[in-house]
Amino acid sequence: MASVLEDPTLERHFKGHKDAVTCTDFNPNRKQLASGSADKSLMIWNLAPKARAFRYVGHQDAITSVQFSPFGNLVASSSKDRTVRLWTPSMKGESTVFKAHTAAVRSVAFSQDGHRLVTASDDKSVKVWSVQRQCFVYSLTQHTNWVRCARFSPDGRLIASCGDDRTVRLWDTSTKHCINCFTDSGGSATFVDFNSNGTCIASSGADSSLKIWDLRTNKLIQQYQVHSSGINSFSFHPSSNYLISGSSDSTVKILDLLEGRLIYTLHGHKGAVITVAFSRTGDLFASGGVDCQVLMWRTNFDTKSYQEVLQQHSRRSTPDPLPHVADIHPRGPHLHHPQPRAIQISPTVADTQSTDPRVIELGQAAYSNTLFNSRTHSALMQTATNSQHSNGLPASHAATSAEEGWMEEESVYQPGATSGRRRGGRGRREEEDEEEQERGQTQPLEVLSGHPSCLESTLRHIVQQLDILTQTVSVLEERLTLTEDKLKECLLNQSQILKDVRSSGERRRTESEETDGSPEDST
């Protein structure tokens, strides 16, 4: 008999975002992890040891969703700036912009073949886009409030969406009709997704509930109430046997769907957990939250290789009934330790002190980086570090308090509590501040990846204004070109009219002369 499986472990943590991490996704090639943030940047973390990270700047507001294409050659991101961007995850940092909706775009997802995108928005609509032609295809508009999430089924025949109207809707992609609507959500539905073989969908809610429906019977088959606050995101394991969820109660929960019970509670984040995601093979999963960190965990609780199982699932995308969630391998019970009802396995995760990767900024903000020499860079880093700890309140944590319900409730971030701790002399916070300053001086960064200083923000503002001026000039040039073309056309028409008038006048004179000369000839 096989030995009892191990608990999940924290593999790495990534620090580089300056505000809440709102979304994560693994590259199918197992070499990269993408994360989006309220700081308007998309970051690509290379999983190889000591590899550099890429920061892509282009969105004008918080990024809400990110996903790699099935082949890993593109990354799609959605934003509150009402656009969707398609990025090339390389040093070039090129992107294509879709002006997708008339309000904030909450989610973006690829179809299984990579040919289409589905987006959900606060304008109450779900839209489908062609990736190759980079154009709009059709819209789904029966939601009556903000749409929070939309996903394709694995076979591409269905779309699931959910939103603040407390409904989860199923759409047929061939007829564009809503074929089912689940209305038993106790509050706003925050996230929805299909399991790997498309037999079930799950939805999470602001009421901290998680529900799973069987699509063949359209019945609710499982319901979990394991969090003490709203669930912001969840992810199915590729086997469909497990599900992880992230909540505003600062925890990540792992559910065993075959046994129908909670098996792990992970405490790694300080504050709300906004995003969780399994890798395509299920051996890793990532989480991100308002503490600006991305944590990467090793699964450990299921050592089975699912490559063959996933291939079988892809071959079984037929009109025949697909297997039930209980028919998926392994069929037997899982070898977990027996747990009490109050499950609390992993203790609070300590800082691993792993070195942060060097960050290369790409996109609009990269222009400002060339203006700094090494001396200015080190001085600004020291200024940023001092300003960060001047009142005991990190800027990133202070900024996240207003981020749509992702409230930071830990007293460690309150200025009053920190100042009270300092009155008694040199405390733990001051020692940590000095250690962080020393680390900042001894670990040079390739670019300014810490908290932005006043000078940097001013330069970025200038660059943005220059971009606006450039766009304005290009629009004026286009209008001048159109005006010039119209003037040329008017001149040509006028000259043609003059020619016609002249020719008609000559004909009349000729006719009159002939008429005047005819009587003389007769006499």
How much of the polypeptide forms β-strand, as a percent range? 25-35%
Number of strands: 29
By secondary-structure content and strand pairing, the structural class works out as alpha+beta
Termini separation: 135 Å
Spatial ordering of strands, largest sheet? 2-3-4-5-29
Summarize the helices and strands and which ones pair or pack.
Blueprint: E1 9-15, E2 21-26, E3 32-37, E4 41-46, E5 53-57, E6 63-68, E7 75-79, E8 83-87, E9 95-99, E10 105-110, E11 116-121, E12 126-130, E13 135-140, E14 147-152, E15 158-163, E16 168-172, E17 178-182, E18 189-194, E19 200-205, E20 210-214, E21 219-224, E22 231-236, E23 242-247, E24 252-256, E25 261-266, E26 273-278, E27 284-289, E28 293-298, H1 307-315, E29 359-363, H2 366-369, H3 374-388, H4 395-399, H5 415-422, H6 428-442, H7 454-522
Parallel strand pairs: 5-29
Antiparallel strand pairs: 1-28, 2-3, 3-4, 4-5, 6-7, 7-8, 8-9, 10-11, 11-12, 12-13, 14-15, 15-16, 16-17, 18-19, 19-20, 20-21, 22-23, 23-24, 24-25, 26-27, 27-28
Helix pairs in contact: 3-6
Give a verbal description of the structure.
- 24% of the residues lie in helices and 32% in strands.
- It is elongated, with a radius of gyration of 30 Å.
- Among the domains are: 87 residues, no CATH class; 57 residues.
- By secondary structure, it is an alpha+beta fold.
- The chain has a 5-stranded mixed sheet.
- β3 and β4 form a beta hairpin.
Please summarize what this structure is.
24% of the residues lie in helices and 32% in strands. It is built from 7 helices and 29 strands. Strand 27 (284-289) and strand 28 form a beta hairpin.
